[in-house]
Amino acid sequence: MATATTGKEQRGVRRRTAHLKLVPPDLETREGLREHCRRIVTKLDKSRPLSKDEMERLARKLLAEAGEPEGYVGWTMVVLASEFWRDQVAAIPPSRRLFLLPHCLKHAEGCPADYDEFGLNCKECGACSIADFRAIAEEMGYRVLVAEGSPVVLKIIVSGYVDAIIGVACLNVLEKAIDKILLAGIPCMAVPLLSSDCRNTSVDEAWVREMLQVTPANDDVVRTESYLPVMRLASRLFEPDRLEELVPRMRGGTRLSEVEENGLAGLDPIAATEAVAYDFLTRGGKYSRPFIVLAVYDALSGGRVGSGEIDLEDVPKSILRAAMSIEAFHKASLVHDDIQDEDEYRYGQPSLHRRFGTATAINVGDYLIGMGYRLVGREAPELGAEATADILALLSDAHLRLTEGQGAELAWRDARDKRLKPIDALKVYVLKTAPAFEAALLTGARLAGPIDELREPLKKFARNLGVGFQILNDLQDWKLDEANKCTVGADLFGGRPTLLWALACEALSEDEVEELFRLAQDDSGDPSVRLEEARKLYCRADVFGKALQLVDKHRLRALAAIEEVEDERLQHLLQYLLETVWDRPDESEFQAAPVVIPLTLPS
């Protein structure tokens, strides 16, 4: 929430915001501040979403005028955002709204509810307010979820089942929701919990009931520009039926179920490869790269999709196929990376080389690369020869650099000397991660027209976004990630040349470096014990703190690149990408991180 670009933030350093997340202690103060928010919102332009900077400035001004302390900034920002979106949420039927409740409203002792894949499975025992709120919402037609975390909410929204959110959550959760949901332009309202204790907490129940029953004040509701239509478009491109429509199969209708039932040997090898490739394209992922292509194209073409001026079906098929090409390249790199890294799982399932063998997986990856170039090359009549040639040149350049970066990583892994300098790790990141973002940004821009003045700013932005993203991905490896690789410490035990490893080699003594090598390579010991000992060495070398400082440094450089872009819509999109692609943890999360033994999933 309170992360406007002022003070340290202008130098790329994220401020600590705990002191800005106080909740006004009495109902009278909360009601008064809420009324102030209503008055301010009536004067705002609602055709575009508020940025976090704008929300914080408004909140600070309001608190100063009301004579209230700075500590209420975060709480006031949530209330401002809720009032901003009130009319648009109200205009959406309850059957198209999601009601999100936190599990911490339950009574910690004696709660009979269990958790399933979607969150808390409430038994409606009457011991807490969850069941009461749920009953009201379900009677009105809401979809109800008792869970926390913006990723699952965003996934539900993008899937198309609901168009607005009404939520109850603590300020810590709502801070992340602003990054992931509010900045995307998704209509939502929220009631902050009265504490962040995560057990036996409480909420202004009258506010919750009022929000659930919100109705339009009038029929003339201003629609805010949103990235949600573009998100949904990018995701739907890879639904099986849409994929078949946009990219008809070349070798008949063989489906993966036939391949798995009869085996590869009993079918036409080309058709079988095609079946596996098509299935992997639909398997999962965030589809962030095709989203970037489409969002950049839309921004530079007047924002017609985001503003609702044109239907999704009206986007030219040539544009859609160009966006799909980026995902085909990305999926190909995942197949090959999983083989080279010996990763056992992808998207929560056995990786392709485990399911079908290494040779077949390599072939599928190669097929996806060919599909990526074909998706663009065949659109020359629609895109124009010059634009097609430019896009193919962008894609091939990104492809070459990505393989150079992967080659450098493999060479390091095969070398006897496992020492690595931080600058060399960063060079690999520039080659391995940044080109994918650069290709998506520049392809989207070229689809909209010439990119002479945009080329360098977008390349700078992509380079710093990619490096920061990869550092954060390294940090994420020290947390359980059930949605993806299902392991903790995979980079350490897999011997990958990460920045974290390089920072440790640089700062630790010779004996400590040798101990780190032993922990990474000696697989005879308990993996959880080895991981904990390695974490202690990383903390001794201040690896996590230094890595986060580099993230902040590259964030500053990305912000500077955004300032070089003149188009306001594109600027807003780049800022959105910067805030949402990076899920920046706090250094304290690594000081006593729980060690989880790598999961073993059923074959």
Model description:
By secondary structure, the chain is mainly alpha-helical. It has 3 domains: 7-212, no CATH class; 225-378, Farnesyl Diphosphate Synthase; 384-603, Farnesyl Diphosphate Synthase, CATH 1.10.600. Helices cover 57% and strands 5% of the residues. A 4-stranded parallel beta sheet has the order 4-1-5-6, with helices on both faces. It has a two-stranded antiparallel ribbon with strand order 2-3. Strands 7-8 form a two-stranded antiparallel sheet. The longest helix is centred in the middle third of the chain and has 30 residues, at 385-414.
Brief characterization of the structure:
With 603 residues, the protein is mostly helical. The chain has 26 helices and eight strands. Mean pLDDT is 84; it is low at 1-14, 115-119, 481-486 and 593-603.
